Amino acid sequence: MRKRLNFLLSLLLLGIVGLGMDARGVVVFETYSPYHHILVVDQGGFRTLSFDGSTETRMLLANRLRGHFEYTEYFHMPWLWNHDIKRVAMIGLGGGSTQRAYQFYYTNVVVDTVEIDPAVVSVAKKFFGVTETSRHKIQTEDGRIFLRRSTNNYDLILMDAYTTGRYGSSIPPHLTTREFFGIVKQRLTTDGVLAYNVIGQVHGWHSEFVAALYRTMKEIFPQVYLFPANESQNVVFVATKMPEAFDAARLRREAAALVRAGTVKLPTLSSRIQSFVAHPPPAAVGAIVLTDDRAPVDALLGNTD
Questions:
Q1: Residue 158 CB neighbours (<10 A)
Q2: Which of 150, 230, 264, 302 is most buried, by CB atoms within 10 Å?
Q3: Which of 185, 181, 213 is nearest to 199 (CA)?
Q4: CA 75 vs CA 118, 167, 170, 212, 269: distances in Å
Q5: Structural domain spans, the chain
Q6: Does 305 participate in catalysis according to the annotation?
Q7: Model pTM score
Q8: pLDDT of residue 159
Q9: Binning pLDDT at 50, 70 and 90, where does residue 297 land?
Q10: Does the domain made of 2-60 have the CATH classification 1.10.287?
């Protein structure tokens, strides 16, 4: 009975049985893994992946490179700091929006994806066109363990990992701490860049967690920037090992150079860089530094009773 209620709740959250929504949405797949209640839904020409009632990935059925969520395009921003990205590690697979884009736009880049849930890997391959090739390998493992054990160095590490606990959707605490970012920095090349997606806002909803994560990253990386999404409640952090600070004018110059060279062909590059924020979030001054001994992620996200 509880699973049936959760299933109906997921449908409501996806808008399938909500007022004013297209009632033709079809659940094409459903399963329970040790980590998630997974739903794949087709509606209005889009395919959506849901974990525990939270929408993770959206894809246009007619064109797998379109229909994705805006925040995934900010995972292309690290090229502004490193024009010679060759090897990428991405923690978190979902429906593979970023992996598909990287395979299409950057044909000389090798991507290692790390996903803890084997069921997610299976769903991504079967329903979202995710493929493994010589340029894209998938490891089923915890992301922190993978980075700690890896002998590879990466020009770019992308983070988009969420889990579901007793209070709902949350970032795994062990992927938010000063110690974790120390491991990330060790795995990055000299000009390496980290990009990290957070569901939240600089002001308001989840801003305490955004501030805490910013302050924690600044303990390890000399420069940390923000890209708040315009169409969703996401903030993508970009942290660099490069000590030199970038401003908006420098970003525009780098973007122009990338376009001229044909290195980055993302059509929305010039508009996405407009979201660039070079200063700390307002709450960062009083924010805590997250550590392995103290990382109250749920409390900062307001997920506690």
A1: 25
A2: 264
A3: 213
A4: 24, 28, 20, 21, 11
A5: 2-60, 70-300
A6: no
A7: 0.90
A8: 98
A9: confident
A10: no
